[in-house]
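for the record, two folds in this file. i put them one after another cuz i was lazy. first one right below, seq on top, structure tokens after. the second one comes after a little note so u can tell where it starts
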Amino acid sequence: MAGTHVGSMEQNSQTPLLEKSPQPYIEETEMSEFGSKSLVGKIAYIPKLLWVFTESNFDTFVIPNTAFGVLGAFAASVLVEGFQQTPTALEILWRFPLVLAFNWYSVFIFDLANQRSPESIQEDLINKPWRPIPTGKVTATEARRVLLVAIPLVLLFNYLLGVWRQGLFILILTWMYNDIRGGDEVVRDLIISVAYGMFNSASLEIAVGGGEYTDIGISRGGLIWTTMISAVILTTMQVQDLKDQAGDRTRGRQTIALWIGDRFSRISIAFFVCFWSAACLFFWDLRPYGYIVPATTGAVTAYRVLSKKTPKDDATTWRWWCLWTITLYLLPIISLI
């Protein structure tokens, strides 16, 4: 009876708020792949659980955010202040696993919160049917219980790494995006862009050995650069929504692509990719050879978004966009050459 009551309350708490609600929630299976295991088996399953929830976001969120911190650390002299001696390449590479871990477990929390709601499950049946809940690897209830354990651990890890302020903001933004449905509103990209600022600044501080317990912090130039990248995210991040329009329309999500139309969304993305490519190159005052890589990846991204319009093409363009942002993260290093 108690289990039935909890399951009922959980489903009721996830009642859709939009007038155009999706199809009824799928009933959870009695036993998932994760739930069928013993306690030891569940503990051993955790690495797989981490991967199956974050797989689709690993190369598009975890890697770029990690790259911002690690690559920025190699340009610490222009992005960071408070050093007695700038970090060596060996010290930066030694901290690389910590930067990767921070981004990975933070995205894991976001994905657990994002994929467990009835609306997300219905959407994933259309857009991403291979995800763990639609395939029965994990149930929504089990995902909620994992969150109850994972969030306190993440708070502890962020405190030990000296980035608890950014980590706390990331959790708040995760709650805003998922639990109060900010991800279904036009402010969706604004929430994501602010979150990127938190991820990127924390990644940079971890990579250089800075944070709350040291005198090492991001310089004025580093703050301006981090803010510029957040502006890049705000104005071009909608490229990720192009491939998911069918599921977003079913859910009633107000993405830019659905709000202003596919054509104008694509024109907007292409314009801002070109604009920010030029603005970032101007900001770092590079020599001509420094223009080649970011200008090339930006041009390919802009071309694809205007000419390649199938969901499969849009998924590839999304990855080109991620590559373009990483080339922007290289600019501080190139400016020192």
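(here's the note) second protein begins now
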Amino acid sequence: MAKIKDTDYLYATSRVKSIEKHMLTRERAEKMIDAKSMEDAIRVLDDCYYGYLNEITDFENYESLLIEEHKKTYDFIKSIAPDPDHFNIFLYPYDYHNLKVLVKNEYLNRDDTDILVDTGTIELNVLKHALKERSFSDLTENMGKALNEIIEDFPKTRDPQLIDIILDRYCFDEMLKAAEKTRNKFIVDYVKMLIDSNNIKTFVRLKKMKKSWDFFNKVFLKGGNIQDHIFIRNYDEPFEKFGELLLAYGYKDVFLEGTEALAETGKFTKLEKLLDNKLMEHVKSAKYFPYGIEALAGYLIAKDNEIKIARIILAGKTAGISPDLIRERVRETYV
């Protein structure tokens, strides 16, 4: 099979750029936030061509609309991409989410099937059958290794955290391996930044919980730009001093502003938002490639972010949260 070139993406890139104008802009997000009713807020998504809004009668049950939009986006990209398998990178987290749910259902005697998602790379019935039969040949190698490790280690401790730790480690490892196979700097850099972002959030949370550095070492995700020794050697330093060390990685200002807000409010909201916005800064660079895989990857990531923004707004309105507070939580938009 001939190697796919950037120019092979000319048609796909033009398709993506033609629909970017329909995405959720900051102006549209503000309109949703200020809407007087849930119906008015959801109607804003009509401008973004979400689902079949004319068929919606229960405006409190918006989740199905967002799930459908997510599936529609991935189906669209895979239908126009010269190499659709490259975009599995962005679906692996949903596979691993489903594995977490299924494993916890089994080991903790739960029934959380309502939070399973049908947007991964592997169908739910295949995941369920593999786990039930302890036969993982239809899963990826990493998924099989993760499940075997859980089956081996969980009975020794019966600690539910172990399930999350193991599956997260293999998920991000799988994403990074897949990113490196694309040989595309934009995608590799994105996954590395995603790993760094998760490690920073974990570092801050565990320090606030007064967990030891050796626990952090267990949950640290490898593969990012910030190596484990940066975190571990400075684990007992105050946030102000640790933030200075992040200057070389571009996270100093985000870290200091986020942890300052945490000290004032006791909430992680600001730090999480700033880290997400940092990722979006990188993703926005995809718009400046005239053609190539970057445009499609950027659009996919941006749509995930857009759906997250819509969910934050609609969940906030459902809970009766004030527009100003919702506004504080809303992430940077792609367009």
